[in-house]
Amino acid sequence: MYGSMPRMADEKLLTQQTKTHSTQTTTHQEPSPSIYSSVLAIAGFIILIVIVLWGLFHIASLASPFFSSLFNKSTPAAIEVTAPSSAKSGESFALRWKYSPKENGMYALLYQCRDNVHFEIPRGDTSTPIPCGAAYGVPATNAPDNMVTITPMLSGTASTSIPVSLLFMPSATSSRQAQGSVTIVILPSETPVVQVPGPVTPVVVPSVPTYTLSPADLSVRIVGVSMDQSGMAAVEFDIANQGGRPSGSYYFEAFLPTQSTYTYTSPLQSSLGVGDHVVSTLRFSAGVPGVVSIVVDPTDAVSESNEVNNYASQPIYSYMPTQSYYPQSYPYQQQYYSQPYQYPYTY
């Protein structure tokens, strides 16, 4: 019995130590942080940064036109225009300018519409009215001298001040235009009054004739065609404005007899003034016998008095030198541009 007491005491001590060790282990054990929560936090932070950067880039792209408009304000090139400070109604004067263009183009006159004033261009014994509020092409015969003669016509007895602008329109539509202006005072014409004894005879003042301007009328005619034995061909054609108003911008199409039946579409052409015309030459290779056709204003974008004369055609054979199908005389005044349009080889 006494021998079993130490054994019982040892078992009790062992049980107490085991419970104590178990209690300490449970007390110091802590839950470890989840790796998934950390990954989600980092991913959310990255997404937030991407959203902020995208917003800043979008704002900058929207604001760039505003800032560029503030700091990149370009003005059209200036043309130095000179004219008399005043001119009498019915008396012609010279409008001159100084400008050296860097590319081909044409000049045009522009003036504000007034009820009692209009301008005319003298042509021999007659004159051609210049429509107001629209660019009127200066005849090519005057362009090399940088001068044009115009005649003011004033109805009434009160002087009128009117600005006149000169524009240079380059052949390439993407190029910048140049302009200049001058203000001219139009004075009434002097009508002498003869005093005679007795009753006073009233002075008859001639009325200013009124003009009814007809619409533009674009026409085309083929001057000549040619083709050599190798298939190199050319067609020369004349586009004219036979109407009473400037034509405005237009284009034309050419149906060429090639091995693949090619259709050529021209770039936008400059406006033709009243009575003006331009001669063009179109060269192409791989030609075959057939018919060459030219159509001006194929979509009827220009308002015209006659649409029938917008088409012309001529046959072309396997080998033929340049042939002209029309006489050199022309039913209206010929005005050639100083440098007619020339088109490169077309394939």
UniProtKB/TrEMBL annotation:
TM annotation in the entry: 35-57
Coiled-coil annotated residue ranges, if any: none
Gene3D superfamilies tied to this protein: Immunoglobulins
Matches recorded under Pfam families: CARDB
Region ranges (Disordered): 1-32
All residue ranges annotated as the CARDB domain in the record: 225-313
Compositional bias annotation for Low complexity: 14-29
Keywords: Membrane, Transmembrane, Transmembrane helix
Protein name: CARDB domain-containing protein
